[in-house]
Design brief:
Radius of gyration: 25 Å
Strand content: 15-25%
Oligomer: single chain
CATH class of the largest domain: Alpha Beta
Shape: globular
CATH architecture of the largest domain: 4-Layer Sandwich
Number of strands: 22
Largest sheet: 7 strands, mixed
CATH superfamily of the largest domain: Ribonuclease Z/Hydroxyacylglutathione hydrolase-like
Length: 488
Amino acid sequence: MTSENKLTLPQFHAIIFTMNIEFYSLGAAEEVTGSKHVFEIDGKSYLVDCGAFQGSRAEAEKKNRDFGIPVDRIDSVVLTHGHLDHCGLLPLLVKHGYKGNIYATPATRDIASLIMMDSANIQARDAKYLKSQAQKKGEKFDWTPLYTEQDAIAAVSQTIGVSYNRPMYIGDGVNLEFHDAGHILGSAMASITIKKGGEEVNILATGDLGRKGKPIIRNPAVPAVPPDYIILESTYGDRRHDSTDDAIQKLADMAKRTVKTKGKILIPSFAIERTQELVFYFHLLVDKGIIPEIPIFVDSPMATNATTIFQVHPECYGEEIKEAFIKHHKNPFGFNSLHFTTSVQESKALNDHDGPLIIISADGMCEAGRIQHHLIHNIRDPNTTIMTVGYMAENTLGRRIRNRESEVKIHGEWFKVKAQVEEINAFSAHADYHEMLEWLKALDTSRLKGIFLVHGEKKSQGFLKKYFEENGFPNVQIVKYGKTYELN
């Protein structure tokens, strides 16, 4: 064959597909609360959590209204769980015009609905009260709530329930799979896998990471897919929790002491998970005859409604609650000495109720709700015990009480703190630094390129970064607000 007759083969050029993945936080960066984390994947934005900032009124107002990202850039939203600092601004997102899907587990959808509706109601009441106060003073009033009940309803209507371990495509080449985070009912880690042109990157966003051995829900899962990057919360990054056995003993001791003094125990408690957990433990103590049937009141409409949600989601239960109650056809959230208040009048009547008495009431950080009224009536009584059982953010009334300040301001008035203040760390729903390391070591980290710390105060994150580095995880970064990180 002559050179003229040779076949000319087509020239093939290698086409390299590269993914451009960026990550940045618009909340819960070097602080706790207000989780909003964004993944930019080839020009499309995916939002993981859309939480409200909780703290001083002025700071919260500024941070919550400044959303930080144009709504039309968001392709999908992933919600890890139903706490206000993770779901509380979803109605505002929808109000600003977001029309896309919000992905959450079925239990999270129900809890987030309750939380968002409650937040809308509180804002409406605040607006009415503040307006009346301004009118009395002859002042101008132009504050409006962040959102209304209708906005909350719209957010729920856009939420799609996705069960654990059920892969779901949420974008072009973007796969979501939820794994149980063991934090609260329905809480999830979001495993996000991006596949483009033969490349694959897995990002594991923990949301809030829970703990082993919680009484109601399951232990945190250990996802099988090895992550390339982990977005890890760090709320308790510099603290260890008390043992559960010691905490239950402390609960029993305080209850017995309160019976002797005929006093009261006030427990500021988050309406979801913490309240149900306390009810569970008090039920066990009464069942075993360790404490007498001291009257226990759950004084929180949200906690009452949340307990109903717990009852309709047994798929989230761990083995302990099944063994202790379900197999014996008992309601773990109901026993003779437990009462749920159903009206404002019943709540007010508790202030005239003689001890011994235990009141579990929201808000968990004492920043709002009926707990403030119980504190006003009882904080100056030495026979009252205020028992803190969870995280108290900086600049909150709960943190000031936990720090045993001699005087605190409630509803504009100063009160001497003469009540006894006790603290139990074992009931926290967040993993401590030892538990986080134990969870990390159980993962397949053969592909791990980096860990990004979010949702924690600076001191906590600094300790945790050093602790991880000393224990074999060198590539740890503390996420700065608005700073972009490449995940290629």
